[in-house]
Amino acid sequence: IRCWSNIPFITMPLSRAHGKSFAHRSELKHAKRIVVKLGSAVVTRGDECGLALGRLASIVEQVSMLQNQGREMMIVTSGAVAFGKQRLRHEILLSQSVRQALHSGQNQLKDMAIPVLEARACAAAGQSGLMALYEAMFTQYSICAAQILVTNLDFHDEQKRRNLNGTLHELLRMNIVPIINTNDAVVPPPEPNSDLQGVNVISVKDNDSLAARLAVEMKTDLLIVLSDVEGLFDSPPGSDDAKLIDIFYPGDQQSVTFGTKSRVGMGGMEAKVKAALWALQGGTSVVIANGTHPKISGHVITDIVEGKKVGTFFSEVKPAGPTVEQQGEMARAGGRTLAALQPEQRAEIIYRLADLLTDQREEILLANKKDLEEAENKGRLALPLLKRLSLSTSKLNSLAIGLRQIAASSQDSVGRVIRRTRIAKDLDLEQVTVPIGVLLVIFESRPDCLPQVSALAIASGNGLLLKGGKEAAHSNQILHHLTQEALSVHGVKDAVQLVNTREEVEDLCRLDKLIDLIIPRGSSQLVRNIQKAAKGIPVMGHSEGICHVYVDTDASVEKVTRIIRDSKCEYPAACNALETLLIHRDLLRTPLFDQIIDMLRVEQVKIHAGPKFASYLTFSPSEVKSLRTEYGDLECCIEVVDSVQEAVEHIHKYGSSHTDVIITENEKTAEFFLQHVDSACVFWNASTRFSDGYRFGLGAEVGISTSRIHARGPVGIEGLLTTKWLLRGDSHVVSDFSEHGSMKYLHESLPLPQRNTN
């Protein structure tokens, strides 16, 4: 029993058990019964006279889509007053005498004074039209809608409450969308917010409280409150340092400062929060989001139901650790402290991590064994991914060696002067290397990626957010723990963060205020998804690793099979493995060609024939479906070309600008290939597998970039640095360099300081 407007009543139907709201956004996709509350600012136009028809149509389309998925949708809508105001204004203008209109003139008629319209009269005039509009829109999706008008009294009287409950259940049973509104034609004037002191009292005096009451009464799974702001902020939106609150927990309202209410409507954000907390207490999950933004309003409802990070999600379950936003801020602060360390101190951290990888070998392999057993039991990983997931003593030893290389080569990476210019007398300019900021590295099935990337971030002074695949959860956890143990040597433990919350990758890619660069490590599909999802954050990576080996007429018999075998069979799941073998036409039906085919068969490589190759054969292997295929397994395509020029053209047309190789003894042909193939890595008489940061002497890599800006090929420390300009003067001003000024520009190049080569 609770008190509401000083009258005690039961807040929920007697048959309802106290429900549990969803704990995480990812669970919202399981919501069956949903209430969508449309605020006045969402439904009405900016002039507050008439409806925002385009926005309303988009909302109806989303509600219809969810209804047709088998969900039970209800709408609590505003808009009757605005629609009625538009109709009544029109009627008043028409009722003006023709004489008065003619004598007033066109301009005066446009600005003719309209009497202040009483809200209840507007509501009475607008309710039927608003409902007719909803009916017409829902009819386009073969959905029936029904109007229900309620007042305070309908919730005072137990019998009326039961009748309302029964009516709504019957409509839902018949697949009808109930459209509910307060009966503004007969409601009393609004009362002061006397019940906003706590969450134990709820009055139906605006559509926010109405939506919360109905959500609890009807045992709904989800209440979506759409307004004209992105969600709940920790201070009034638009104020300095205002931050959107991703998840709001009961008891957090003390840390929030509320601003003024929206341009129209009865309730402000404080009323929305109060109603949301009341609904949450009743077992209904709540999201407050923006329904007016033109870029997101067309999919805001469906995005919320899909669990995407939209608006503010109200949850009763606080996560054990920090939120991803807090982790991003910690990584930023930790990265700046890291960058301020001496180079020897950063190197010491990396050396310590290398030692821990070998000292704690048994614990690491035990955690990795758990991941492998779980993956095999669930059968969710293909064999190539299982190989990537697996760690071994030799892998850990190689990792440790690579980390020590990074430590040794990082002594002068941050703060290195790369250009010095004397602008004028006593005015010197320097360009120096600095960290990029905060990196987000997303990787699949590759626990060895974690210490590699961490070492590179430490060496370059960058903060780091790591998002690993759940298939490597145990391995990632212990490797991150060891990384933080190494960072603790100099008190910068927070610089590297492992994201363990249920954040979707797409949501992480929207944190443009926290993340400066995204580096995906995984399948081509993962990279493409991240490139598509990233909003305002640059992505470093390659979408595919379609690597070619071209065998020229002057190729050495001894070298060909060695290079092809290594490129394809040494590690077929790698992004730098051979996928397409180009063979000069003159080599067909020669002993060299037969040796290549025999070797591939011995290695159990499945061969796919390109169109030209298939045309030369009576009985050919299966013809390739696409020449742009990354197999990632013991499969490859063979195609025939007529010349080195045609090989180059084929690579440019079907390749991914990753790594391409020519095998030939003709130096002129080789140089033509090296100069004309426009890929990140181009080799002569060497395996594609050399395209790797460790093999290049970089110690390790964060990935192989095929983009053309900033970094290309295996990306080591240098690719994680940018620059800033330092200008040192002595009371210099630009006006001194004008035509009649006293100073002249010199622009003299100055020698660079000696680099540390130890």
Task: Explain what you see.
The chain is of the alpha/beta class. It has 3 domains: 25-92 and 118-187 and 200-314, Acetylglutamate kinase-like (Carbamate kinase); 324-417 and 433-533, Aldehyde Dehydrogenase, Chain A, domain 1 (3-Layer(aba) Sandwich), CATH 3.40.605.10; 548-701, Aldehyde Dehydrogenase, Chain A, domain 2. 38% of the residues lie in helices and 18% in strands. It is built from 25 helices and 26 strands. Strands 5-6-4-3-7-9-10-8 form an 8-stranded mixed sheet, sandwiched between helices. Helix 14 packs antiparallel against helix 18 (473-487). Mean pLDDT is 86; it is low at 1-18, 191-203 and 262-267. This is Delta-1-pyrroline-5-carboxylate synthase. One of its GO terms (molecular function) is glutamate 5-kinase activity. Can form homodimers/multimers.
